């Protein structure tokens, strides 16, 4: 009985420590607390213009992501179609990165929650 109680307490303590550590790491992950290192150093008007200008690219990215999920969900996935869809997604991402550079906004590997794949919802 005592051994079972002690084991249960240790398991609960481990879970609490794991969740607490993850929450602490998430809060400190980004330079502004949201994984958006460029957020604090970008002119808000420039960021808004970038956001407005890249809306079609973000919509295309979401559309491609949905199509890719449908391809993966097939009983026998068409790997050639999946490969083509991923190439399309890479082209959209490249366009997004070009736009970010034009606006002087840091964007790419290491930027944002998804490391250059969309925005975190707090940046732009």
Overview in brief:
With 124 residues, the protein is mainly alpha-helical. Helix content is 66%, strand content 0%. It comes from Thermodesulfovibrio yellowstonii (strain ATCC 51303 / DSM 11347 / YP87).
Describe the structure.
This is Zinc resistance-associated protein. With 124 residues, the chain is mainly α. The chain has two domains: 1-30; 35-124, Up-down Bundle (Four Helix Bundle (Hemerythrin (Met), subunit A)), CATH 1.20.120.1490. The chain has helices at residues 2-29, 44-53, 55-73, 79-103. It is flat, with a radius of gyration of 20 Å. Mean pLDDT is 75; it is low at 28-39 and 110-124.
Descriptive tags:
single chain, about 120 residues, mainly alpha, Four Helix Bundle (Hemerythrin (Met), subunit A), 2 domains, 4 helices, about 0% strand, flat, Zinc resistance-associated protein
